[in-house]
Here is the input.
Amino acid sequence: MAVLLFRLRGVPDDEAEDIRNLLTAKSIDYYETPAGNWGVSMPSLWLNDERQLETAKALIEAYQTERAENARAEYARLKAEGKQRRLLDELKENPTRFAAYLLLAIVVLYFSTKPFLDMIG
Here is the structure.
């Protein structure tokens, strides 16, 4: 019986591809279900053989641990070199977009709190 191994919703394409390649390289028999035409279904990787579940989960966990360590190391390297992007960098690079997002946030905050503030006053 098929068993759910890994949900792909929100997973970056490169990570999903790496996991597919990892499973294929280790001869783990799996299949993939897409999100469907309207993106309603859950894109996932499924195992055909339930007996491979623990091995597959261990492989994915080891891969994700290594990926997280690499991301932290890259962040630390960029931060040490002074190349890590900050909010101020975004503001300098694209002030119009930054102002538009800020204005949008203020409008949403205003309309979200206005009914409650009207009840008080």
